[in-house]
């Protein structure tokens, strides 16, 4: 059994997509980030960065005590290695999957996240910042589009944690001011994942957990006003 500490963000969706694909038993513990639940001391013990998602594996493969894992990329890799699924088992294939997993963690996620912030949530519209992150998001879409142009169906050939990591960050492409028609190979890849039964289940589940907008004027103070004092 996996305990999943979760909210309906792109990083949260990554993990429900994996768990639904693997049909691994799990229980969701919602962490409503708009209400500051990510700062609860009991959650901090599991996720020291005050961010979702996080998991506790109640049955680790070494047979020992439960293992807590935070950071979505680390969770995906942990689960894939636990089950020996959704990450290639050969050296070269695994390398490709991990390259693109870390590409998402270090590039697509942070850049698209800044896109969301300055375009959607910043209290003042700073044109330079908006242009910077809209263009960088487009560049990253272009990088993945070019990678997929050789006819491969998924990022590492077979469906993997690399796809699960990237897909949720492309879902809000309209909010990111990206035109999918500019990226035909990316679009085909996106639609393949969108139509997978596990993806449909994961997003349907999200709709039952979060029925109100996550970001409002009050929650902005929690989500965007943190500094070093937050972690003391």
From TrEMBL:
InterPro entries: Glutathione-S-Trfase_C-like, Glutathione-S-Trfase_C_sf, Glutathione_S-Trfase, Glutathione_S-Trfase_N, GST_C, Thioredoxin-like_sf. Residues 90-223 form the GST C-terminal domain. Residues 1-87 form the GST N-terminal domain. Belongs to the GST superfamily. This is GST-like protein. The lineage of its organism: Bacteria, Pseudomonadati, Pseudomonadota, Betaproteobacteria, Burkholderiales.
């Amino acid at each position: 059994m996996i305990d999943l500490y979760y909210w309906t963000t792109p990083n949260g969706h990554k993990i429900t997509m994996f768990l639904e694909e693997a049909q691994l038993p799990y229980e969701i513990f919602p962490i409503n980030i708009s209400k500051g639940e990510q700062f609860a001391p009991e959650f901090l013990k599991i996720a020291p960065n005050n961010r979702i998602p996080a998991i506790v594996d109640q049955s680790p493969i070494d047979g020992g005590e439960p293992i807590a894992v935070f950071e979505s990329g680390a969770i995906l890799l942990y689960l894939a290695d636990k089950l020996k699924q959704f990450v290639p088992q050969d050296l070269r294939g695994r390398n490709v999957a991990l390259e693109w997993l870390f590409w998402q963690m270090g590039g697509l996620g942070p850049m698209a996240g800044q896109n969301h912030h300055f375009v959607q949530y910043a209290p003042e519209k700073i044109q330079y910042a908006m242009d910077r992150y809209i263009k960088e998001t487009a560049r990253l879409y272009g990088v993945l589009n070019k990678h997929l142009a050789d006819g491969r169906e998924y990022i590492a050939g077979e469906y993997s944690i690399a796809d699960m990591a990237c897909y949720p960050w492309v879902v809000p492409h309209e909010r990111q001011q990206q035109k999918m028609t500019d990226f035909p190979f990316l679009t085909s890849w996106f639609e393949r994942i969108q139509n997978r039964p596990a993806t449909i289940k994961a997003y349907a589940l999200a709709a039952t957990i979060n029925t109100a907008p996550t970001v409002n004027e009050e929650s902005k103070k929690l989500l965007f006003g943190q500094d070093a004092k937050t972690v003391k």
